[in-house]
Amino acid sequence: MSIFDSHCHPQMEQYDNDRDEMLKRAKDAGVFMICVGTDLETSKKGIELAEKNDNIWATVGHHPNDIPDDLSQSFMIYHKALRNSKVVGIGEVGLDYYRTPESEKQEIQKEILVKFLDLAMEYNKPVILHSRDSVKGSTGRVHADMISIIENWKLKIENSARPWRAGVAHSFTGNIDDARKYLDLGFYLGFNGILTFARQYDDIVKYAPIDRILLETDAPFLSPEPYRGKRNEPAHVVEVAKKVAELKNEPLDRVIDQTTGNCRKLFQI
Ligand SMILES: [Zn+2]
């Protein structure tokens, strides 16, 4: 059976000593993955991994905490990359008010996010959104700002008569009201190992329709139980599937099948 890790970073240096073994464990476990870029270097390395492995696809983008002064070089490369059939989306991009509390810098993050959304619109690709609030565990301003940016972007797409592709709110940490707004906009919600050790998102998993949930690891980060404290890897995505199955009171097979189908549909794989 195959299972899709919709958000991981197997190209990162944490795997430089044993990447082949880690990828083999994932392949043996039937794991397909979206290898997500966080800056120019990880975007390029992600594409290389995708080209070498038939169970890996890549996305390109800059994490809001990894934005260079000059983005023009990155954009030149991304324009070319987006014609490659193994490059299936834009991300991760977004807003991080936790590590960027200064409001002037948050305004810059918003401007850059809009540039990436326009790039996604130009190539008709889905976006992987990162949103983190200024206060840990709070559900304040970041999702309100993100949702309003996405609503404006959707209007722009409608006015240009282009098709709407939406995307995923990765590592979703908003409240039920935020979840409803993303779902209304056609977005998927991405859940990871946080579900295995924190209880505050259980109600959102129960609320979200199973056909709008994506599984992710965010490896090498956010190891699920029983691997907490260790480096995470895509093979552990099944632990997230088990938790979703438990919360939704569904058979594990059905959760894996449905979320794998969701990921294929969103990224047109
Ligand atoms: Zn990530």
TrEMBL record:
GO terms for molecular function: DNA nuclease activity; hydrolase activity, acting on ester bonds; metal ion binding. It comes from the Bacteria. A divalent metal cation 1 binds at H7, H9, E92, D218. Pfam families: TatD_DNase. Keywords: Hydrolase, Metal-binding. A divalent metal cation 2 binds at H130, H170. InterPro entries: Metal_Hydrolase, TatD-like, TatD/YcfH-like. NCBIfam families: YchF/TatD family DNA exonuclease. This is Hydrolase TatD.
